[in-house]
Specification:
CATH class of chain B: Alpha Beta
Shape of chain A: globular
CATH superfamily of the largest domain in chain A: Thiamin diphosphate (ThDP)-binding fold, Pyr/PP domains
CATH architecture of chain B: 3-Layer(aba) Sandwich
CATH architecture of the largest domain in chain A: 3-Layer(aba) Sandwich
Number of strands of chain B: 7
Strand content of chain A: 15-25%
Helix content of chain A: 25-40%
Largest interface: A-B, 41 and 47 residues
Low-confidence stretches of chain B: none
Oligomer: heterodimer
Mean pLDDT of chain B: 94
Number of domains of chain A: 2
Largest sheet of chain B: 5 strands, parallel
Order of helices and strands of chain B: HHHEHHHEHEEEHEHEHHH
Radius of gyration of chain B: 20 Å
CATH topology of the largest domain in chain A: Rossmann fold
Strand order of the largest sheet of chain A: 3-2-4-5-7-6-12
Shape of chain B: globular
CATH class of the largest domain in chain A: Alpha Beta
CATH topology of chain B: Rossmann fold
Number of domains of chain B: 1
Order of helices and strands of chain A: EHEHEHEHHEHEHEEEEHEEHEHEHH
Low-confidence stretches of chain A: none
Mean pLDDT of chain A: 97
Strand content of chain B: 5-15%
Strand order of the largest sheet of chain B: 1-2-3-7-6
Largest sheet of chain A: 7 strands, mixed
Distance between the termini of chain B: 53 Å
Structural class of chain B: alpha/beta
């Protein structure tokens, strides 16, 4: 039962979800680099090792492929590992185990097994990490049948979605934007769940639909306030779930507003925005469109180091405002 | 027990293999039975391909049966194995039935994987076989994870990771050995060194002379055995699994063996000589095992003939079962991508 609600940071909300799962289910354990006494590179696991011990909060060597495979094998044989990648970029070293094994084992074995593993992935730019510590590679995973992929944007959602992910019988990738770790929001105490297949309507509007997720959902909401002052009423959908996509929520919103802007930090070409655009183009919402669909994505470049360049590489609030303005005042 | 080999020195002065005193005659005959069934299964697989009945690729382990069955001799259904793309033998060695195996080979709904996996993914999780694997080295870290599960549960189960010489240059091999060693997990790493990774001889692929040499880098005991000798392999496997069950951590076994068939259907055998292949065929592991059982009085010629006759009859029934089984319904293409809600 969810009861008292407090303000927690996004990182605290994750830690609370992990503590609840660890306390409730003996099978749950955490794996990752420096998640024990160090507390995690982003201090997400914090003091959990003191509360649950080194067996349940298990430091791994810098050995992403092997350790991710251990998580897959443990999940296949009755445990429920929650694996933290220090940066989502490092998951590329473990792609074999995530994509060839975790995602496919249940199917390849004719449904005879489950792989209840959670991979947590700090994602995105904005901290000066440069090209190998700042990528947004959600689309890589969202392309893979057998995986579920989510990216919560609020402390409330990340706690509820992480608890859902840990309880889920299938492999779930949870992307956590690094800039969100210190953001605050209301979080109920205790165990509650947020579905892994539903988008959230964050702001109702009449003039256009902005579909975003993660940090971009927050930027879209900020942009919507500026737009409102100009008389443009934007609807903001926080996608939350990247696989599966909440097709119904997107289509219903576009039918209402007749305009669609997608915003995402990953590289624009072949990113989530392309899929959302195609989904709408193939749907009954197509006939309602009053303007071409717009995609606002990351630059066609690795994430650069210099703050001046880094900021230019991903959509900022003013970019969203400008794009929405163009869309709202464009061809009718 | 009279069905057990008498360890008193034989009149001819020949030392009997140690494993013949650890296993009963019935257990040894069961081992032979499994080796023969592997051979019949793979010959049937090959034949079905030649006759155009099978569809995808296949990797035959003919000549390697002693390794698969010897390694599995100390294992029960509670113990885990992870297998390779050349996995038919491991599956049968772990106790799988021929009918659902051959049905899987032919892509039928009655197969172990309901036709979704095929030859390269046959699994039998109910008996601890976590599956063959199409990715070289893919099963090693998974076996380490299964061993972690077993240890956490407080069971004395072990996990065996089968892999070939080709896998010993994959990062996954090195990472898995290191993790199993630092965490002292009950894993047995079994390298079936059949000397060629597809066409590449181990001398061209591997800087170490023996795969077993690599274990020392991970503070892990290792031994090299004649992979064509059931007794030699089983003895090493008992030693390694006893160690693992006692909490003493992982072991690497390198079984030197040979696949007398090609790598897969596309193989023209241009990387090795006919003489080399024939020399290994002369060391056939099943012939050798039968001769030993006869010589030591642990199986009669009649019993061996019966084992062979039964394997042929069971294989014929498995083929019939598979051919009569339905193919999967395309309407159920996406079933089991995810668990039911």
């Amino acid at each position: 039962m969810a009861n008292d609600t407090r303000e927690l940071t996004y990182a605290e909300a994750i830690r609370e979800a992990l503590a609840i799962a660890l306390a409730a289910d003996e099978r749950v354990f955490l794996m990752g680099e420096d998640i024990g006494v160090y507390g995690g590179a982003f201090q997400v696991t914090g003091d959990l090792v003191d509360r649950f011990g080194e067996e349940r909060v298990m430091d791994t060597p810098i050995s992403e492929l092997g350790a991710a495979g251990v998580a897959v094998g443990a999940a296949l044989t009755g445990l429920r590992p929650v694996f933290e990648f220090q940066f989502s970029d490092f998951s590329l070293l473990a792609m074999e185990q995530i994509v060839n094994q975790a995602a496919k084992l249940r199917y390849m074995l004719g449904g005879a097994v489950n792989v209840p593993v959670v991979f947590r992935m700090p994602t995105g730019s904005g901290l000066g990490g440069a090209a190998q510590h700042s990528q947004s590679i959600e689309a890589w995973f969202a392309h893979v049948p057998g995986l579920k992929v989510v990216e919560p944007s609020t402390p409330y959602d990340v706690k509820g979605m992480l608890l859902s992910a840990i309880a889920d019988p299938d492999p779930v990738i949870v992307f956590e934007h690094k800039l969100l770790y210190k953001t605050k929001g209301p979080v109920p105490e205790g165990d509650y769940r947020v579905a892994l297949d539903r988008a959230a309507l964050r702001r109702e509007g009449r003039d256009l639909t902005i579909v975003a997720f993660g940090i971009m959902a927050l930027r879209a909401l900020e942009a919507a306030e500026t737009l409102a002052q100009e008389g443009v009423d934007a609807e903001v959908i926080d996608l939350r779930c990247l696989r599966p996509l909440d097709r119904e929520a997107i289509v219903a919103s576009v039918k209402k507003t007749t305009r669609l802007l997608t915003v995402y930090e990953g590289v624009k070409t072949l990113g989530l925005g392309a899929e959302i655009s195609a989904l709408v183009a193939e749907s009954e919402a197509f006939d309602y469109l009053d303007a071409p669909i717009l995609r606002l994505g990351g630059a066609e470049a690795p994430i650069p180091y210099s703050p001046a360049l880094e900021k230019a590489a991903t959509p900022q609030v003013e970019d969203i405002v400008a794009a929405a303005r163009r869309l709202a005042h464009g061809r009718a | 027990m009279e069905d057990r080999f008498d360890a008193t020195p034989a009149p001819d002065g020949v030392n009997r293999p140690w494993v013949y005193s650890r296993l009963s005659g019935a257990e040894l005959r069961e081992a032979l039975r499994r080796m023969v069934r592997i051979r019949r299964f793979e010959e049937a697989a090959e034949d079905s391909y030649i006759r155009g009945l099978s569809y995808g690729t296949m990797h035959l382990s003919i000549g390697q049966e002693a390794t698969a069955v010897g390694v599995c001799a100390p294992l029960s259904d509670a113990d885990y194995i992870t297998s390779t793309h050349r996995g038919h033998g491991h599956c049968i060695a772990k106790g799988a039935e021929l009918k659902p195996m051959f049905a899987e080979f032919l892509g039928r709904e009655t197969g172990y994987c309901k036709g979704r996996g095929g030859s390269m993914h046959i699994a039998d999780p109910g008996r601890g076989n976590l599956g063959a694997n199409g990715i070289v080295g893919g099963g090693l870290p998974i076996a380490v994870g299964a061993a972690l599960s077993a240890k956490r549960r407080g069971s004395n189960a072990v996990a065996v990771a089968f892999f070939g010489d080709g896998a010993n240059n994959e990062g996954a091999f090195h990472e898995a050995l290191n993790l199993a060693s630092i965490w002292r997990l009950p894993v047995v790493f079994v390298c079936e060194n059949n000397q060629y990774a597809m066409s590449t001889a181990i001398s061209r692929s591997t800087a170490a002379v023996n795969v077993a040499d690599r274990a020392s880098a991970y503070s892990m005991p290792a031994e090299i055995v004649d992979g064509n000798s059931f007794a030699a392999v089983a003895e090493a496997s008992f030693r390694a699994t006893d160690r693992a069950r006692a909490g003493d951590g992982p072991t690497l076994i390198e079984a030197k063996t040979y696949r007398t068939r090609g790598h897969s259907r596309s193989d023209r055998n241009r990387y090795r000589s006919r003489e080399e292949i024939e020399s290994w065929k002369a060391r056939d592991p099943i012939d050798a095992f039968e001769a030993e059982l006869l010589a030591f009085g642990l199986a009669s010629a009649e019993e061996i003939a019966a084992i062979n006759a039964e394997a042929r009859a069971d294989m014929a029934a498995a083929i019939e079962f598979a051919l009569a089984s339905p193919t999967p319904d395309p309407a159920e293409l996406t079933r089991d991508v995810y668990s039911p809600a």
